[in-house]
């Protein structure tokens, strides 16, 4: 009752949608457009990454350095690992430290690749997988954001700063620039923000991205090896317990969950190209689906 009608080309009448339904569909369409991957803009991405990293560093270093609490938490983790017979960090630290060229290389690995590889993967996604870039970037940013909560709620000293066990601060001993938390740079970073390990969170994000999207087999193998080697490095240099790596993995799982909920799919399941992007010369782009034919209208030639 009270349903309004319209007349089609052949005189047929059909119901129109109510204003309430139109409004609902319009709102859902707006949300869908917000969630749809868009072509990334270079200037915006550079600005976003720069501001985001500055904010991350500011917040991370603004977390109070609760030295007593951080050392107490480290002692508890160490006792628990020994009770479970899984405390391998000290043995690995001493074994690798005995090979000077190896541990010095790991110090520089720890200090540099964390940033270089992550930025390189972001650039690669931006250039070759624009349809997946925003979702993958959201997963990385959400991972980093939840890590800040961990730094605040659970201050943790790295093994090299503990008083009891005989861990070796490899950067200090070998006088290499390998950590902003050692030597002359130690005042530029919160030394008690070890849980979770973003070296693992970021490297695992890079490794999974490379493994999922790279086409060359040996490159995919490198993607898997990168977070594995990073785990060896953070333990060998006594910058993290291996349980810190577990914390980094959980943060990454949270990041991918956020991206999955927002975009409706994992980043690597999205189309490589942005929908509606003009195809390059010689390449075929996405084909638009034909408009639906209204009821009662005969298409030409039928």
TrEMBL record:
GO terms for cellular component: membrane. Residues 76-256 form the Inositolphosphotransferase Aur1/Ipt1 domain. Keywords: Membrane, Transmembrane, Transmembrane helix. InterPro entries: Aur1/Ipt1 (IPR026841), IPC_Synthase-Related (IPR052185). Residues 1-27, 277-302 are annotated as: Disordered. It comes from the Bacteria. It is found in: Membrane. This is Inositol phosphorylceramide synthase. It comes from Streptomyces antnestii.
């Amino acid at each position: 009752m009270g349903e309004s009608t319209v007349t089609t080309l052949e005189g047929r009448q059909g119901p129109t949608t109510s204003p309430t339904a139109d409004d609902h569909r319009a709102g859902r369409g707006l949300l869908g457009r917000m969630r749809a991957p868009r072509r990334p803009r270079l200037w915006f991405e550079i600005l976003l990454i720069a501001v985001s990293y500055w904010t991350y560093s500011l917040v991370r270093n603004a977390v109070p350095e609760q030295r007593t609490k951080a050392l107490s938490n480290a002692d508890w983790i160490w006792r628990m690992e020994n009770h479970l017979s899984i405390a391998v960090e000290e043995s690995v630290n001493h074994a690798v430290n005995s090979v000077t060229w190896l541990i010095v290389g790991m110090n520089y690995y720890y200090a540099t690749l964390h940033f270089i590889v992550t930025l390189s993967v972001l650039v690669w996604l931006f250039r070759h997988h624009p349809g997946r870039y925003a979702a993958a970037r959201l997963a990385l940013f959400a991972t980093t954001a939840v890590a800040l909560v961990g730094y605040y709620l659970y201050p943790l000293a790295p093994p090299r700063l503990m008083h009891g066990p005989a861990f070796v601060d490899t950067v200090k001993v070998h006088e290499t620039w390998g950590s902003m938390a050692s030597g002359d740079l130690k005042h530029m970073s919160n030394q008690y923000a070890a849980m979770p390990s973003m070296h693992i969170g970021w490297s695992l994000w890079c490794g999974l991205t490379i493994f999922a999207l790279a086409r060359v087999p040996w490159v995919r193998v490198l993607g898997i090896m990168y977070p594995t080697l990073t785990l060896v490095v953070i333990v060998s240099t006594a910058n993290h317990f291996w349980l810190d790596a577990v914390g980094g993995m959980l943060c990454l799982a949270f990041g991918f969950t956020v991206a999955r909920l927002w975009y409706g799919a994992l980043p690597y399941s999205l189309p490589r190209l942005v929908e509606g992007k003009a195809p390059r010369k010689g390449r075929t782009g996405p084909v638009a689906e034909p408009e639906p034919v209204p009821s009662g209208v005969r298409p030409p030639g039928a």
